[in-house]
Amino acid sequence: MDKKVPKRTNRLGRGLSALIPDTKEEIDKKDIINLELDKVYPNESQPRKVFNGDKIKVLCESIKNYGVLQPIVVKPDEEGKYMIIAGERRYRASKMANLKEIPAVIKDIPMRDIMEIALIENLQREDLNSIEEAIAYKGLIDHYHVTQEELSEAVGKSRPHITNTIRLLNLQNEIIDMIEEGSLTAGHGKALLRIVDKEKQLEIAKKVAEEELSVRETERLAKSISENNEIKIPKKIKEKDIFIVDVEERLTNVFGTKVNISKGKKKGKIEIEYYDDDELNNIVSMLLEEH
């Protein structure tokens, strides 16, 4: 059983190269056929539900001028139609361009593999919001028994980043919606996780959005509430040295959790936050891995 896990990870790490080469030149032309668009349909279980309309329009104009440069990948069904495995944006743009046909490569592979590849492909896109990213991570872990370590290797993100992103799904539902809509950031969400009471968590989230508090101010507010069970709007924080801020951000990216550097006249202090024992173990492992 253990031997199968690395094989799965390697396939996921290759993404769509498990199905089709990256460049048109590498595709054997005999494998490409033109399918009637009316016979092609999207996968209803596609993990990505939101498509950027402006980008679809840009792609539509490109297709009008140059055609579909890379074939979509489809799976045949029992009714003589074809479900999209990869290339839904090309399909949508082609419909918008009023094309009758679209170049395609047919692959008859199991639905389980299709879903795995779709999840990984979406994770490798840069325009996913943090909640979509968290749902995709959780879907792979829950349904395909991928460990966070394997997932980290497959998608090129640190294990603490994956852990902290998934934790966003523990937020109150309305706060999750606020992050998806862009009125709060993932950083705000992680700070709000300190507040256990869901009603108070939402109350503070709305206050943060309305008063446009920074992530750092939200962290101080959440800490104050978790310690004193009172709502106190923090005072504006004095601007830090730009070098210190840069180092904090770099360390935060390394450890996947908040890092605070305070600098005194004669000495300074580095604080690395963690939320559970697993996260502490991850941080200690990274600190000691060179020794």
Describe what this molecule looks like in 3D.
The protein is 51% helix and 11% strand. It is an alpha/beta fold. It has four domains: 75 residues, Orthogonal Bundle (Arc Repressor Mutant, subunit A); 89 residues, Alpha-Beta Complex (Conserved hypothetical protein from pyrococcus furiosus pfu- 392566-001, ParB domain); 67 residues, no CATH class; 41 residues, no CATH class. A five-stranded mixed β-sheet has the order 1-5-3-4-2, with helices on one face. Strands 6-7 form a two-stranded antiparallel sheet. Strand 6 and strand 7 form a beta hairpin. Helix 1 runs parallel beside helix 6, helix 2 crosses helix 3 and helix 4 packs antiparallel against helix 5. The longest helix is centred in the middle third of the chain and has 15 residues. The chain is elongated. The N terminus is likely disordered.
